[in-house]
Amino acid sequence: MTTARKIARHRPRHCLPLLLGLVAPLAGAQAQVRAAPEATPAEPAASADTRQTLGAVVVTAQRKPQKLQDVAAAVTALTAESMESLQVQSATDLSRLVPNVKFDAVTAGSTALKPFIRGGGVTDGGQITSESEVGIYVDDVYRARLSGALMEFVQLDRIEVLRGPQGVLYGRNSSAGALSIVTRAPTAATTGSFELGLGNNGQRHIKGHVSSAISEDKRWRGSLQGMVKRRDGNGQYNVTQRKDVGAEDTVGLQGDLAYEGPELQARLSVFTTRTDGDGQWAVPNTIAPDGTITPSTGSYRKVASPYDSLTDVRQSGATLRLQGRLGDVRLTSITGFVRMNDHWRQDFSGGVSAALIGGSASDTLALFERESHTRHHQFSQELQAAGELLDGRLSYVTGLYYFDESGSQDLASTIFFQPSQVRFNADTTSRAAFGQLSARLTPVTTLLVGGRYSQDRKQLDGALAAQPFDQSNRYGKFTPKVGIDHKLAPDTLAYVSYSQGFKAGGYNGLAATVAQISQAFLPQTTDAWELGLKSELLERRLRVNAALFHNKIKNRQQTLTVSNGPSAGSFVVENYNAKLTGLEVEAAWRLLPTLTLWANGAVNSGKYTGCATTVNVPCSVIDNALPLFPDHAFTVGFDHNTLAGPGALRFGADYSQRAAYYSTADNAPIGAVPRQKSLNAYVAYDVGAWTVQLAGKNLTQQEGWQTGFGFSVVQPRFAIPGRSVMLTARYQY
């Protein structure tokens, strides 16, 4: 039976009872709960009552400080402490910790990101023309290019994941959700840390940071942090070249200067990173007459291409944040600049036996070679004004946003020995005005009304096989949000909201002809309804949050593979309508002062319902399942800590399972991903200023793939990461 048939057979018809039956008895803690700072047995000053409750965390998901449980939206937050034990080293680790989030490496170099939230995302993140449905923000600065987004986290304050359209308050209008990464600001007290790590596949790293006041009044502060990370491979072996592959080196440095005065707060951050490695490697597959698909090498841990892959990404940038007051109005300015050079190369065929095209069985061929050089820089400026009126009964946030991005990309491809070259010069300018008002109607009921007008201008010129193209388009859209929340009890919040997300039209950077490149695809709009409940029970020892959502997407920009004809191996973008519904639950239970159980889960249903009327568009995916939107997924875990000798012993584990899903909109068998399971665990010992931790991910060595596509004898899949084990020792003062 093919994987595609298995997916169809195992689609549950009644998802809601399934999830409720799962979460209710477990009452475990999810990442949102782990975000709260928790007392440990090594803190004798904490009372037993304090240690038995779930802590609170403050987030800025609505552009103002709020307790996470008071935010009337589906938000998950992780603090630095929870990220350490949950082994969050990159954005891909969030996939098991946040419901309806799937972040994978895109098929373009080893550092690019393919982020999906609630079935919305982008698959061509390696292209200069790409714009994601999921906004990535670092210290409130939007990162346009997903190349290099698989960053190694150094000193972070927290991560916030916002699910659903962010069409009002966030820089670029993100129609599926947003990932907000908040780095740690310099401190007045002198602090620092130094960490060494060793792991399998030759993994090793050194991290360090120092932070201190640099003036006598401690208003001026500075910090410096750095990282060197290396690995000898990623667990894959090239049977043709007879060597391990996946080696990678990363170096990063960030410096911060901050001023904390009574009337003005300022922070300047400057960073630079470099990742250099032998790239990403596709696994070749063979399709049997009965439709069975198997790796030609016998394993997804083995590749076969004779063509060397590579990844070389350099990034640098700066962020300046200024905040002050003009009377009762809080004014904020956020200025950001990022520059990137991205060079990658790989064989998308994975290495194909020459016998399949009439050659010698002893030869292995690279049938889909591609090399890319991208140069990119972006500048953004955001101005905010926030305050309260009528004795605090009204609060508001309003502002202006400007974004400009320019870049070029040179792509050289050789498909079945036929070379082609294309040069893109892309420029995007975005302007927006936004505002959101919260009105406290009663002491327990609040009305929220907001809106944003966005105007984007996109320009693309260049040449494909010496044939020039030059296109320019403007897109504008007002996106509203309205909601109401009500405190059913002091620790129980219910809310309902309607919001709209927008993604401007654009151009197909994977097209095979000038005509395809010159045909701009339509802008897409998402209408989203959400009903949520946030509750804390049993004297704040049990927390259960749930969100039920329904989205309608008009003119979704969908990339599809061309499987035959002269354009085989290229991609087209078509506009489709879609609808999706889902239920997400996050829960935590402080069962004992030393033991916390946690869980998260989601059940979903979604499909394409129609397509835009466009000449020569076959509308081939209507009624297909949405990619990267499984019927159900869940994670359960626990964390335990106890006094042991002179220090504290901590250990925990989590198990996640994701139902079968399609990674491509055509629902082709090569892109069908079967049910996946993962087991992760850690054990740590804290004594004085030292922490030693042994942690492992994918301990059962689950083997599989996260996506695939195909045409003719080219049938590649891209493997999921193998087992990773890391021993770290950290000194913190």
Automatic annotation (TrEMBL):
Please list which residues make up the signal peptide.
1-29
What sequence ranges are listed for the domain TonB-dependent receptor-like beta-barrel? 276-699
Annotated InterPro entries: Beta-barrel_TonB (IPR000531), Beta-barrel_TonB_sf (IPR036942), Plug_dom (IPR012910), TonB-dep_rcpt-like (IPR039426)
Q: Output the SUPFAM superfamilies linked to this UniProt entry.
A: Porins (SSF56935)
Domain named TonB-dependent receptor plug is located at 68-178
**Gene3D superfamilies from the xrefs?**
TonB-dependent receptor, beta-barrel domain
Q: Which CDD domains match?
A: ligand_gated_channel
What is this protein's record name?
TonB-dependent receptor
Whether Hydrolase counts among this entry's keywords is no
Specify the superkingdom: Bacteria
The record's keywords, sorted A to Z, are: Cell outer membrane, Ion transport, Iron, Iron transport, Membrane, Receptor, Signal, TonB box, Transmembrane, Transmembrane beta strand, Transport
For this chain, the family text in UniProt reads: Belongs to the TonB-dependent receptor family.
Which compartments does it reside in? Cell outer membrane
Q: How does it sit in the membrane?
A: Multi-pass membrane protein
